[in-house]
Amino acid sequence: MMELSRKRIAVLGSTGSIGTQTLDIIGRHPDMFEAATLVAGSNVDALAEQCRRFHPRRAVIADRSLYARLKDVVASMGIEVEAGSEAVAYAMATDDVDMVVTATVGYSGLAPTISAINAGKEIALANKETLVVAGDLVTRLLRRSGSRMIPVDSEHSAIYQCLAGERQESVSRLIITASGGPFRTFRKEDLEHVTPDDALRHPNWSMGAKITIDSATMLNKAFEIIEAHWLFGVPADRISAVVHPQSIVHSMVEFTDGAMKAQLGLPDMHLPISYALGLEKRMPTGEPAMTLADYAMLTFEAPDTGKFPCLTLAGYSLERGGNTACVVNAANEIANEAFRRGRIRFTDIYPVIMDTVDRVAFVAEPTLSDYVESNDEARRVALSIITSR
User: How far apart are CA 222 and CA 211, in angstroms?
Assistant: First the structure.
């Protein structure tokens, strides 16, 4: 009887930062959750170890070349093994999955998330690029399918919690907090010489390499503004970012009467993950609680868009519309990796993105195939720009 009452969860990106913390929550509440499907990109060893611990019904590796290796390791466990991007998308829509946690990073999360939406699954969304790339399409699909999407990003979870019990028409502004990243106190000219290792030293959060670089450029915050627009239906000119170096206030909502709600907590993802898995039911996370006396001073400051121009890409992308945000995301994924590999400077990331936007054909009302084509073209153009530098 207990087996039937458990929520069956598919974790897309189970070996990454959000994925492993999701499995922490599942492991702490075995009476409530089952890790039914685990999906990884290429980290076959970590996926195999997770299979040993959680015994999912299905394990999927996106890299087809690793299928045989995964199959050999888990063959004796009675686990169904699949490989490839089509298998990933299919696994999100099977009847033995109730909720999909989209914990992967980047454009690769779009197709499997759409597959889950079309199948009417509950979506715990940590892959912000799904809404950045194709927010208009995804929100239309959500309305059509009846699928429910709950944010996992700490900032959007905070807003979601602050909006509980409130009327949409009472919302004046959404205020998304940003730590400021590792270069908050740097001068603009100093950014010319920072290294990937410098950029990966986030002061508060432990995240994957790609998103940590996005945090350093503040493009991550631009993407979060775009995501908030689609999640909560608030116009871009009523969503702003504020730098909050302590990362204790995760976001705020201002209401029409001047009141403001904020959600506070330690910089740890277990809380927003558990809130999403429990569909707003609060559960013990097993993590330390915050002691307010330890944070007697919480500070806020306006972001410096002159120093961090990537932050301006939120308003630019939403105002221009069409496939703009899709192109921005694709160009950034290429530029971000190029910086991490030492091929371009930190300050080259923004120009590469804008040059790519200028060269990729604008599509005013993109279909899914248009998004796919725009993504592919933007990656080719960004690579060409970087190679020619």
Answer: 12
Residue 328 pLDDT grade (very low, low, confident, very high; cuts 50, 70, 90): very high
Specify whether domain 2-151 bears CATH 3.40.50.720: yes
Residue 105 phi/psi, 5° resolution?
A: -110, 135
Give the N- to C-terminal CA distance of the chain in Å, as an integer. 63
Q: For domain 321-389, which architecture applies?
A: Orthogonal Bundle (1.10)
Beta bridge partners of 34: 8
Domain range annotation of the chain: 2-151, 154-307, 321-389
Tell me if 106 sits within 8 A of 113, measured CB to CB. no
Rounded to an integer, what distance in angstroms lies between the CA atom of residue 243 and that of residue 46? 35
Nearest to 156 by CA among 173, 174, 129: 174
List, for residues 159-179, the tens digit of each pLDDT value. Answer: 999 999 999 999 999 999 999
Q: How many other β-carbons are positioned within 10 Å of the β-carbon of residue 372? A: 17
pTM reported for the whole predicted model: 0.93
With b meaning 16 or more CB within 10 Å and e meaning fewer, what string describes 8-23? bbbbbbbbbbbbbbbb
Report how far residue 84's alpha carbon sits from residue 263's, in angstroms, rounded to the nearest whole number. Answer: 39
Higher pLDDT, 287 or 20: 20
Average pLDDT over residues 39-59: 97
| Angstrom distance (rounded) from CA 106 to CA 99 | 20
